[in-house]
Each structure stands twice: as C-alpha cells, then as structure tokens.
C-alpha cells in the first residue's frame, strides 16, 4: 500500500472540445489527476443536439444520466436504438458505435461518464456510416 499519495480534487470550470462534438467537463483523467486506469467527466448534450457518431477503441463506458432524456443510436450503421431517462445507468461495451441525441429541444441533457481509459479522448474514434 502507498499511504503517502494525496487525494486529488478537480473542479473543472470550462468545457473542452471533443471528438464527439459535445461540451465536456473533464473531471478525473491521467492529465488532471494522474489517474492510470479511469476517467470521469460531465458531458452536456445541448437542446436538440447530438454527438458525432463514434466508438471507444479498447475501452468500456459507464454513464449515469443526471438530467434529460436521450436516445442513443448504436451498433452497425447505428441501426439499433435505446431511450434513456434521468436516473438511468448505461453501459456501452468497448468498440460499439453509438450516437446519443438529446430528445428535448429546450433543455440540456447532462451525464456523468466514466471510462476505464485515463486519457479520455485518445481512444475515441469517429464512426463512419456505410
């Protein structure tokens, strides 16, 4: 055990630009906290907005939908879909293409997103539809 390490607090005040094209408040990552196996962020989907279709190469994603209703298209050519609401936990296996869409035209959807990837954006790949 290493009793000499410090607990790290991160208070993001600005969003970053992401490959997914959604505002992202980076919380825990390799860069912000020295994490070696996890990242955790707040993702905002503005009213009526959607992410760029994408997948996470080699990493799983766990999401807790804090606010809103989101329809996520997923799978080959995004041919499947699921609707999630505030309070849902969502698991996306590694490599599964997906595209979340905010179903509200007036309110942002907000999600807490965690991955077993400390570098957050380095495993994100844009998914091109056939």
Backbone shape: globular
Largest sheet: 5 strands, antiparallel
List the secondary-structure elements in sequence, H or E: EHEEEEEEEEE
Number of helices: 1
Quote the distance from N terminus to C terminus: 50 Å
Mean pLDDT across all residues, rounded? 92
In helices, the fraction of residues equals: under 10%
Structural class, judged by helices and strands?
mainly beta
Q: Please report the total strand number as a whole number.
A: 10
How much of the residues is beta strand, in percent?
35-45%
* Number of individual domains: 1
Strand order of the largest sheet: 1-2-9-4-7
Please write the CATH class name. Answer: Mainly Beta
Overview features:
single chain; 130 residues; mainly beta; Jelly Rolls; five-stranded antiparallel sheet; 1 helix; globular
Describe the 3D structure.
A hairpin with a 5-residue loop joins strand 5 and strand 6. The chain has a single domain, classed as Sandwich (Jelly Rolls), CATH 2.60.120. A 5-stranded antiparallel β-sheet has the order 1-2-9-4-7. The mean pLDDT is 92. The chain contains 1 helix and 10 strands, in the order E-H-E-E-E-E-E-E-E-E-E. The protein has 130 residues and is mainly β. 26% of the residues are buried.
List the helices and strands and how they pair.
Blueprint: E1 24-28, H1 30-33, E2 39-45, E3 54-56, E4 61-67, E5 69-74, E6 80-85, E7 89-92, E8 98-102, E9 109-115, E10 124-126
Antiparallel strand pairs: 1-2, 2-9, 3-10, 4-7, 4-9, 5-6, 5-8
């Amino acid at each position: 055990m290493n009793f000499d390490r410090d607990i790290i607090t991160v208070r993001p005040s600005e969003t970053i630009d992401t490959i997914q094209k959604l505002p992202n408040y980076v919380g825990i990552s390799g860069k912000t906290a020295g994490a070696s196996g996890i990242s955790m962020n707040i993702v905002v989907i503005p009213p009526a907005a959607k992410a760029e279709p994408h997948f996470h190469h080699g990493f799983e994603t766990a999401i807790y939908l804090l606010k809103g209703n989101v329809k996520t298209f997923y799978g080959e050519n995004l041919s499947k879909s699921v609707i999630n609401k505030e309070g849902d936990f969502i698991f996306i296996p590694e490599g599964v293409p997906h595209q979340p869409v905010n179903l509200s035209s007036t309110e942002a959807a907000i999600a807490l997103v965690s991955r077993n990837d400390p570098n957050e954006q380095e495993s994100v790949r844009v998914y091109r539809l056939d």
